[in-house]
Amino acid sequence: MKCRYITIEREYGSGGTEIAKQLSEQTGIPCYGQEILQKVADAYDTTIEKIEKYEENVSNSFLYSIYMMSQAASGKSDMLAADGHIYVAEQEVIKRLAANTYAIFLGHCASEALKEKNGVINVFIHCSDEKAKRERIIKTYDIPESKVDVVQRKYDKKRANYYNVNTERQWEDFKQYDIVLDSGKLGIDGCVRILKAILEVQD
Description:
By secondary structure, the chain is α/β, with parallel strands linked by helices. The protein has helices spanning 16-27, 34-43, 48-57, 62-74, 82-97, 110-113, 130-141, 148-167, 183-200; strands at 5-10, 31-32, 103-106, 120-126, 179-182.
C-alpha cells in the first residue's frame, strides 16, 4: 500500500508536533494542525481560543458520545451542541485538505475523517522518558516546573476525551493505531526518519 496520509495523535510533551513539522519540512508534504482550527474559526467567525475551549469542555459521558455520533452520522448538525458543530466542521475541513494530495494531520480525530480513504497510516506518539518530556514541556510551552504535571494531565485528558467522545474509541488504546512511536527511546529525529521512510515506500 502506498501511504498518502499520516494522522498523528500524541501525548502532551511527547514532541509529536515537532515530529510532524520536521516530517513536513523534509518531505514537502503539508502538515495541518492549528490550520484546521483556523479554517473552522474563519467559517464560524470565531477564534481558535474559543474552539479550543469547546474541545476542552467536551463531555466524556458515554450517552453523550452515542448521541453525538448518531446526530453527526445522520446529518442532523442543527441538533448538535456547539462542540458537536465544531467536530463536524473539523472533519469536513480535514476531508477537503486531503482531497487529491498527500498530507500529514496532527490531532483533531483525523483518523476518523479519513477512515474511508486508502493509504492512511494512523500514528500515536508517546514518550517513556519522563525527564525528557518534562524538559520539553518547560522549554517549548514555557510552563513552570511546579505546574508541569498538572498541565500535562489537563491536556492529555482533553485530547483523550475529545477523541473518545467523537470516535467511540479509546485514545490510549495502542491497538487501534498502525504505528506507535516512543520519542523517549527513538528521539525526535528517529521518529521522523521512520515516518519519512513510510511515506517514501511505493507500491
